[in-house]
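Input (structure):
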């Protein structure tokens, strides 16, 4: 839920020095960057990059990220041990990735993390963090360790080791969700940001006032208000309420700001996908099934929307949109460029930190890109520099900046007086699943003003002031099926002993 990070802090806050002592010897240090003033009014545009995105018919690599519209990349997902708190990566079954070479000497980093580090070297204002958790890794006790001070310390220090080894700027924790305030544990001074829910049943368990002093960014997961668990078809990311689900982004934001979170530290989540409802007569109506989707049942990538022959409805009151095909009786709730522009305007008007997207492979290119639309309408983006100085990484190519020579750091690093044990481990990943929350009923305005478009039809609902206060909401994150990825395999060493389950690289395989 929080971020152990070397990311830039808001004005007036000081970056804590981070130090971990490896169990195998040596130290891993993360140096604070020189203080650089961000672009005046610069906002944050955050995008999730999934490790399983390199699979499938249309693989999405780090090289495919549109770099001029993004300030922060969150790599999904890492895991943690529910007993010890040890942060870890997934088992690494794939041996090559586009752009890798296997003739380099030394112990080197390969796969997505290498490509993301290369992207950072080329674009010095893009920051990359490992996101630990997500839906699957928040289940079955993965975060049970948070009630133990010792395990929390292990988590923090092992996260720092992962950050240093893999050339990252931070560790983002996506804990879905603490069921009681006690599960939050004590706030650690190294924890700097959080991915947080927009549902009252979940955010009411957050110790917001205690967390806020240590967090640089609150990423609001403002999507999945409706889906396969819903009783009727509904909007999945509406800005205002009421809807049948009882959820709205504005009500969630109001709750956080009323509990002491500055608007300037909150990013609004925007989905790059749509949720489908089959055999329905329209919005907020009964349905039967959710269809096949793009790669997961009921979920279509934004780049595949709207389906041909559909009519697109943009509700300017709720600030939401959906497509509907009267022939197939399929309705898909998703954000159009016009709706996202309204959300970007809201971000500026409310003084929010920026936007966050799940997830980058689902976006379109060019003028239809929702990430680009948001960046353009928010104004100047954050230009604080990323981190490229990792002299204590276990990987030779990260220490020498992929052959460009080691970077120097400024200001001078002064180590703290204490150390903590941390190790870098790997663990197998598992498929993500979703369960069915309960939705609450409410009403919605009527639809008017049909406009014909080339491949579909667009209906605009006249704007009006949102009425009523939404007091409950249900939020569930997207549930893609992750694959396993070769991220950081060590070369097999005949003189070294291995344990059962260890994964290494042998003869380039």
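Output (sequence):
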């Amino acid at each position: 839920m929080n971020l152990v990070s070397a990311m830039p802090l808001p004005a007036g806050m000081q970056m804590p020095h981070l130090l971990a002592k490896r169990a195998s010897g040596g130290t891993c240090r993360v140096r604070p960057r020189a203080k650089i003033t961000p672009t005046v009014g610069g906002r944050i545009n955050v995008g999730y990059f999934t490790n399983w995105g390199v699979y499938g018919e249309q693989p999405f690599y780090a090289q495919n990220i549109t770099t001029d519209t993004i300030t922060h990349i969150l790599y999904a997902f890492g895991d943690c041990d529910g007993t010890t708190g040890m942060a870890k990566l997934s088992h690494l079954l794939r041996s090559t990735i586009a752009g890798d070479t296997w003739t380099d000497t030394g112990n080197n980093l390969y796969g997505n993390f290498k490509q993301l580090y290369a992207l950072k070297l080329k674009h010095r204002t893009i920051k990359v963090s490992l996101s630990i958790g997500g839906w699957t890794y928040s289940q079955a006790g993965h975060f049970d360790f948070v009630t133990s001070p010792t395990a929390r310390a292990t988590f923090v220090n092992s996260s720092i080791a992962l950050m240093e080894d893999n050339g990252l700027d931070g560790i983002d924790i996506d804990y879905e969700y603490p069921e009681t305030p006690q599960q939050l544990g004590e706030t650690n001074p190294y924890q700097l940001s959080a991915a947080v829910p927009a549902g009252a049943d979940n955010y009411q368990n957050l110790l917001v006032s205690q967390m806020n002093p240590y967090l640089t960014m609150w990423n609001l997961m403002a999507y999945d208000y409706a889906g396969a668990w819903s009783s009727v078809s509904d909007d999945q990311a509406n800005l205002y309420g009421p809807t049948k689900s009882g959820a709205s982004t504005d009500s969630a934001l109001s709750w956080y700001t009323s509990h002491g979170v500055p608007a300037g530290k909150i990013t609004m989540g925007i989905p790059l996908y749509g949720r489908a409802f089959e055999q329905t007569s329209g919005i907020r109506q009964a349905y039967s099934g959710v269809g096949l989707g793009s790669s997961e049942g009921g979920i279509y990538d934004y780049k595949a929307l709207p389906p041909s022959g559909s009519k697109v409805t943009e509700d300017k009151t709720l600030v939401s949109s959906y497509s509907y095909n009267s022939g197939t009786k399929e309705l898909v709730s998703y954000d159009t460029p016009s709706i996202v522009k309204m959300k970007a305007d809201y971000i500026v008007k409310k003084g929010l930190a920026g936007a966050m997207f799940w997830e980058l492979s689902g976006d379109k290119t060019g003028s239809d890109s929702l990430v680009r639309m948001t960046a353009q309408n928010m104004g100047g983006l954050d230009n604080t520099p990323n981190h490229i100085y990792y002299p204590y990484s276990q990987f030779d190519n990260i220490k020498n900046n992929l052959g460009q020579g080691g970077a120097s750091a400024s200001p001078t690093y002064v180590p703290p007086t204490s150390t903590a044990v941390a190790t870098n481990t790997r663990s197998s990943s598992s498929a993500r699943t979703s369960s069915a929350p309960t939705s609450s009923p409410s009403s919605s305005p009527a639809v008017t003003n049909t406009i014909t478009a080339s491949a579909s039809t667009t209906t605009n609902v006249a704007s009006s002031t949102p009425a009523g206060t939404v007091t409950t909401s249900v939020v569930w994150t997207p549930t893609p099926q992750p694959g396993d990825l070769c991220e950081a395999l060590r070369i097999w060493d005949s003189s070294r002993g291995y344990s059962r389950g260890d994964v290494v690289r042998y003869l380039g395989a």
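Notes: The radius of gyration is 22 Å. The mean pLDDT is 73.
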